């Protein structure tokens, strides 16, 4: 028998779902797909979040991560929320960069004006 079973994994993944909400995983297919996706991430070089008992195989590690709730499976609503937050953060960062650029431009203009004023004063002194 496979340990943990599909049922145990589905219970672990859905343990954070509040009563009345739709479960994150509702079929064996979904749990297999989620586990396979995580195993591929591990193969690609992501760091394991747990140590699988007696195995270093990516699939075993992925199963154990799901069972210990170290990896969260996102619902479509979670994914959309995450995309919105990332977009807002990027917008804020680009806005901060634009503000910083405009401040730098203003400083450069002020320096240029001061330099021009200094040159005009020198010219006036030379004429006198």
Question: Which structural traits does this protein have?
Answer:
mainly alpha, Eukaryotic RPB6 RNA polymerase subunit, 128 residues
* Estimated structural class: mainly alpha
User: Rg to the nearest angstrom?
Assistant: 29 Å
Distance between the amino and carboxyl termini: 102 Å
Number of domains: 2
* Separate helix tally: 4
Global morphology:
elongated
Low-confidence stretches: none
**CATH class (first level) name of the largest domain:** Alpha Beta
Number of strands: 0
Q: Report strand %.
A: under 5%
Overall average residue pLDDT: 80
The biggest beta sheet is recorded as: none
Assign a percent range to the helix content: 55-70%
Architecture (CATH level 2) name of the largest domain? Alpha-Beta Complex
Fold-level CATH name of the largest domain: Eukaryotic RPB6 RNA polymerase subunit
Query: What string gives the helices and strands in order?
Result: HHHH
Overview in brief:
With 128 residues, the protein is an all-alpha fold. The protein has four helices and no strands.
